[in-house]
Design goal:
Layout: H1 11-33, E1 35-43, E2 47-54, E3 59-65, E4 69-78, E5 83-91, E6 98-99, H2 108-121, H3 125-130
Antiparallel strand pairs: 1-2, 2-3, 4-5, 5-6
């Protein structure tokens, strides 16, 4: 194909360039969304900080004040192909649960001590009474 000013324009070259640029963009997008680490920092009498670190280096922090937390709960999540446990917070004036670990799925034996620490950190009397009922695996 020839352009009006006499230069050849290679359609194949342009297409290859677009594929390379699109591929690089896709890799960046995927890399940006891969979670490396999720953590919980409990600050007694103040609240809970939830932190998510992505492979790209991006860090997202969320702070939930103690007076917003009604109760931490352990949920058993059942899907057609798997079953796993999650730790969530029931929040005041919110319809949805807030997952403590949104992407990663730690095993129950890691979630139970975190749940107990959350119960103690927010001074939930109902939680304290139910601690003895929960058997650690």
């Amino acid at each position: 194909m020839a352009a009006e000013d006499g230069q050849d324009i290679s359609v194949g070259g342009v297409a290859c360039g677009m594929i390379v640029v699109g591929g690089v963009g896709l890799v960046r997008l995927v890399r940006r969304r891969i979670v490396e680490k999720e953590s919980v920092v409990i600050i007694p009498a103040f609240g809970v900080q939830l932190e998510t670190q992505y492979r790209s280096g991006r860090v997202v922090r969320r702070f939930v004040p103690c007076n917003s937390i009604l109760k931490p709960v352990l949920n058993e999540c059942v899907t057609p192909v798997t079953c796993y446990w999650s730790l969530a917070l029931i929040l005041r004036d919110e319809d949805d649960l807030m997952l403590v670990f949104e992407e990663l799925r730690p095993p129950l034996n890691m979630l139970v001590p975190i749940w107990k620490a959350l119960c103690a950190g927010i001074e939930d009397k109902d939680c304290e009474a139910n601690k003895s009922d929960l058997k650690e695996q």
